[in-house]
Design goal:
Helix content is 32%, strand content 18%. It is of the alpha/beta class. Strands 2-1-6-5-7 form a five-stranded parallel beta sheet. Strand 5, helix 3 and strand 6 form a beta-alpha-beta unit. The radius of gyration is 22 Å and the shape is elongated. It starts with a strand and ends in a 7-residue tail after the last helix. Bound molecules: 3-[1-(phenylmethyl)indol-6-yl]-1~{H}-pyrazol-5-amine.
Length: 236
């Protein structure tokens, strides 16, 4: 049995195909991780497989019906079961996704993602789910996507590389979760072979073999880059 499980509910299951690639795909292939993608419409019972309706109070667009979502949750995680997933709902009104949240999600046994579309899901769905599971409404940033699917790909890519066993090396995952938060600084630029490429040189210090000088240079580059590009990270 896999150590960790992920269920994703969406009206566009094929959108989640990239999850089978690369790091995540290998963890799935090794049997360490289970990832199942479900079509929300399989929990409808009308001929048109309806998942949306017009918004109460008026306004543009359509809103997703709570009922198909509740059926999906009840099927995947029966209310009477003691094992419940962490429910992640991508939304522009959620709390901002961070490396810290990624590290927290990587420790969960079971994640269930609800990918909304249109203008989002009837707000009572998170009230209903919150009666028995921890619900996290998460935003990637201050821009509006067309739905939750791409947000799930982003969140899962950040989470998977921190999952114990997914990287194939628990120590490097733990180290990453520390260095990725970059002690609050952006990383210095990186270089590889050749030392001169199309007339452009790798900074001399990186070729010197002086580890102290290299660490000092990287630190100085980090501080300078952060000051120029992300001064907000230097507050405090
Ligand atoms: C959905 C939409 C207008 C929602 C429908 C479901 N960070 C982030 N940006 N956008 C999303 C997340 C997101 C997530 C899920 C979504 C957008 N939409 C479109 C359009 C109002 C609300």
């Amino acid at each position: 049995m896999p150590d960790q499980a992920v269920d994703i509910v969406t009206i566009f299951p094929e959108y989640l195909a990239p999850l089978r690639e690369s790091l995540l795909g290998r963890a799935i292939a090794r049997g360490q991780l289970r990832v199942d993608v479900h079509d929300l419409r399989s929990w409808t019972d009308d001929a048109h497989r309806t998942v949306d309706d017009t918004p109460y109070g008026g306004g543009p667009g359509m809103v997703m019906l709570a009922e198909p979502w509740a059926r999906a949750l009840d099927d995947l995680a029966p209310p009477e079961s003691s094992a419940q997933p962490r429910l992640i709902v991508p939304t522009p009104t959620g709390r901002r996704f961070t490396q810290e949240i990624a590290a927290e999600l990587a420790q969960q046994k079971w994640l269930l993602f609800a990918c909304g579309r249109y203008e989002g899901i009837d707000a009572r769905l998170t009230d209903y789910a919150g009666q028995r599971m921890v619900v996290d409404e998460i935003s990637l940033g201050d821009y509006v996507l067309c739905g939750g699917e791409v947000a799930v790909l982003v969140i899962m890519e950040a989470v998977a590389r921190l999952m114990p066993g997914v990287l194939g090396n628990a120590a490097s995952a733990a180290e990453d979760s520390f260095t990725d938060t970059v002690d609050g600084l952006l990383e210095a630029p990186v270089y590889t072979k050749p030392a001169t490429w199309r007339g452009l040189n790798v900074p001399e210090v990186l070729l010197s073999g002086h580890h102290g000088n290299i660490a000092d240079w990287r630190r100085q580059q980090s501080v300078e880059l952060t000051r120029r590009r992300r001064p907000d990270l230097l507050e405090g």
